[in-house]
Amino acid sequence: MQAAGEPVEIRNMPTPFAGTRRKGRHAALFNIPDAGHLNPMLAFTAALKASGCEVHFYSPTVTRERVEAVGAVWHRFGDDNLDLIALAKDVVVSRLGLEVPPDVVLPVWNILVTLAVMPELLASLARLRPDFVAFDAAAPWRRVAAEILKLPAVSIMTALPMSMAERAVSSAKWSPEAQRALEEAGRTISAAYGVEFDHNHSYTQYAPYTIVASSRAWHKGHEDFPTHQYHYWGSMISERKGFADSNKVDSVSSLLAAGAPLVYCSLGTVCTGIALQKCGKVVSMFYTNFLQAAALLPDVNFVVAIGKGAEVEESLCDGQIQVMSVFGQPVPQNVVVARSVNQVHVLKHASLFVSHCGQNSCTEAIDAAVPVLGVPISGDQPENAQRFVELGCGLMRSIAEGGPSNPADLTPEMFVTDMRRLLQEPGFKEAAEALSGKQQKETGQPIGKKMVDLLKHLDLEEQRLEEQRSGILMQLM
Fold first, then answer.
1. What is the pTM of this model?
2. Helix axis angle, 359-368 relative to 381-390, nearest 10°?
3. H or E, element range at 55
């Protein structure tokens, strides 16, 4: 990918998409490598394949195995060592002539990366000639490419839609340096490709057909999002091949069948993986206190997913690698620790979910009708955790530095008190079951039926865009 590539004059060349159509539908999908964004898109890919579509999936090399496992044709997005943040910083310096901002995080770098990837992406799409594109809502380059090439577009939202008023000023929370870089990048993209581009929409790239991987039953404020554009599909669960820790399968299975109350704990894949350096103090403190709390509940079993980056001490026991300590804290006898597990499967057996409250985890917890102890760290997690409290399905303990609680003050005894309440007071489980029933009634129809509705929309959208392309051809003749 070129950090400062020249724009490609494709916006005035509709002919690659005119003429005789090929047999069957061809879709171009785009995603970032973060698991919370990738998993729903892989489930969407599998549904497209089942409907007869040929799917071409653009993503970094690290995702290739998982993409091909669901039957898509993988396309390289950058080289094998692609670092999206480094690419964004290069754009700031070499293309915009500015200093690198201190806060090049996801809703900032994705705008900057758009400048770098557009030339190669447009050329690739012109060769591929897809019938439509689908993109993660946090990926503006995909939305811009679809608009330039006048392709029907579908947005997949793994977070809840942001209100229009909040969306319009979302960049204001970044540093002055980041805001200047975003403004310059937005102006450059608009000028180079003749599209309207608002950098405030970096994480919320809505499309005429926007799929939300959640439910209106869960989304407070869903009334602001019209049903003809925003389609709440509920949980979109892929097979997640390669995520389960094979060394722990037998140990986890034995706990699931043990009969004692089961608590499942996970802080997600971001803060325990790629963001561990930033969140390390909070994460290590949480797991230290949580394992101590588990030791105080010997009548309860625990499955704890700790992610890729946690410091552990392991030992070979009965032919299996067993985690003996996490961040120096010994693992109690009633706890199985794994890097990752099949979360959906474990939640079916869980009595309680201790969660950071990322959006996918929230939706999956609701599906399983499991009460939640929310331990949010960043982003939309505090609002999600508070939503469980509002609905009577859970309790909340913030572990974020600078949050309403000091992480150092959240003692093992506090966690024990919360978990005992959630396990023993029937109101939490009853509320979780009621919410689960509402979500199931709203979103539980087979994904194949949802796909029929989507494909009908795409056919109508293609007809509309074909008329536009024909009009442009007439003007050029």
1. 0.86
2. 30
3. strand 54-59
